[in-house]
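To illustrate the input format used throughout this study, we show a single complete record. The first block contains the structure-token representation of the backbone; no residue identities are included at this stage. The design step must infer an amino acid for every position from geometry alone.
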């Protein structure tokens, strides 16, 4: 799960399965492997909304995209890093 503090700092909203279906379709057709999904996370590393949406896609469609939870953990780590950077910039 995404850290509660990260959710608060980044103002992340829950995403329903219906809301993320279009993004799932895009991920499923354009990113054909775990490595490709990991690479996309690097492209979106500063976009908390996109990372949040990807996390929900991986959660809802875990049987197809992320059965071992490695990708979700990777996205969670990216979100945590983004939240830490944001919090540090506010405190500076």
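Output of the design step:
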């Amino acid at each position: 799960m995404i850290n509660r503090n990260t959710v608060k700092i980044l103002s992340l909203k829950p995403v329903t399965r219906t809301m993320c279906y279009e993004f799932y379709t895009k991920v499923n057709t354009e990113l054909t492997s775990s490595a490709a999904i990991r690479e996309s996370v690097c492209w979106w590393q500063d976009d908390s909304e996109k990372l949040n949406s990807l996390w929900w896609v991986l959660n809802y469609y875990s049987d197809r995209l992320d059965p071992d939870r490695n990708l979700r953990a990777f996205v969670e780590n990216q979100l945590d890093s983004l939240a830490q950077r944001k919090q540090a910039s506010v405190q500076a």
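Structural context for interpreting the output: The helical segments are 4-10, 17-30, 34-43, 48-60, 62-65, 70-91. Residues 31 and 37 are 6 Å apart (CA to CA).
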